[in-house]
Design brief:
Length: 177
């Protein structure tokens, strides 16, 4: 049986490298999400408004508020993970965290940029699975960081249901696949 040496404070990433590793996927996500905003007066806005949506679709401002809160929590959780002692669970959780944060913008690019309703529903489901994996793995590295994944996973469950229903209702419209 191998005995792991005790981790010292110097084995952890410093605050600036941890902040940089946290900021990088957040920046990628932000850039992707900003490429095709559904801003009033744009083609994307008109396309989004033309979609048939289920009655449980939240009002548009709710999406921005929810995602802002979720991303703020995820940023704090990512920073904690990058500052945690090196371990296999910490490394795996950090990789899953980075993927999920970048995919927030990737989903936006797929849905609003590519107008791929089917692909965005599949991507939302995949993010739900990888978000749940992040939360589970992060629990073994830093419980507080893992807790930031819970609202993300809950929202992704709802978002997956919503994306699938939007796809189902608009399956026969141009650009729905």
């Amino acid at each position: 049986m191998l005995v792991q040496p005790a981790m010292s404070a110097s084995d952890r990433l410093g605050p600036l490298p941890a902040a940089a590793l946290t900021a990088a996927p957040l920046a990628v996500s932000g850039v992707l999400a900003s490429l095709h905003p559904p801003a009033p007066g744009t083609r994307t806005f008109r396309w989004y408004r033309s979609l048939e949506k289920p009655g449980f679709t939240p009002p548009d401002p709710m999406f921005g508020m929810v995602w802002t809160a979720i991303q703020a929590g995820l940023a704090w959780g990512g920073y904690r993970l990058f500052r945690s002692p090196p371990s296999k669970p910490a490394h795996a959780a950090a990789a899953l965290w980075s993927f999920n944060v970048a995919m927030i913008g990737g989903w936006s690019e797929l849905f609003f940029g590519g107008k791929k309703l089917g692909g965005s529903a599949v991507a939302a489901g995949a993010m739900l699975a990888t978000g749940a994996a992040y939360t589970a793995v992060a629990t073994r590295a830093d419980r507080k960081a893992a807790a930031t994944g819970v609202p993300f996973v809950v929202w992704l469950g709802f978002a997956s249901l919503l994306a699938t229903e939007v796809w189902r209702r608009n399956r026969h419209t141009p650009l729905a696949h």
